[in-house]
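Researcher: We're teaching a course module on how sequence relates to structure. For the next exercise, students receive a sequence and then see the predicted structure as tokens, so they can try to spot secondary structure elements on their own. Here is the exercise chain.
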Amino acid sequence: MTVLTVAAVGTQAYSQYKQGSETNKAYRRQAELTEMQGEQQYKAGQKQSELIQDSAKQEGKAQKLQEAQIFSAQRAALAANGIDLSSVTAQDITSDSFNKAKIDEINMRYNADINSWTTMENARQKRWSSKLEASQLRYSGKQAKRAGTMQAFTTLAVGAATMGAGAAGTPATAGKGGYGLGTPKGSINMGTWTKLA
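Model: And here is the predicted structure for the students to work with:
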């Protein structure tokens, strides 16, 4: 019976240790995947930010071309109506059109910059959040491994104490004092500690 008890205690302790180790490995794998996802989201954000800027540049070029066509058409219309292009009226009209075009260009650039910055900030936040989550997963893995190791040691210690008490001829029974194993009569149960009365 002693050999079977030793084998059972050893098997249970190994199982507890192995479970803690495997749980740790699972948490570490999850942490790696989480970090990889964060990096992928960050790279996608960078690419999207670049696309926003490139698109704004193309829109800016198209807008400048359109502005040039509008200015040319205005000058042609003014000249066709007999208005001197050096007159104050002609200059006011072209100046007003030019200012409106500049405001549109500035607004377009501003919107592109804001969208690009927002995209990058979101990507940075996602990467940071992924790193934080990965760190927490790794910590949980370490805690699971420690818990498995502690459970294994506790199982071995209780098994050894039980066999030691059995070998000494004293039955290892839980007594009034808590954990038995030779607890003196009249002791008071205080959880894991025993106070003698």
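Model: If you want an answer key for the exercise: The beta strands are 188-190, 193-195. The chain has one domain: 2-170.
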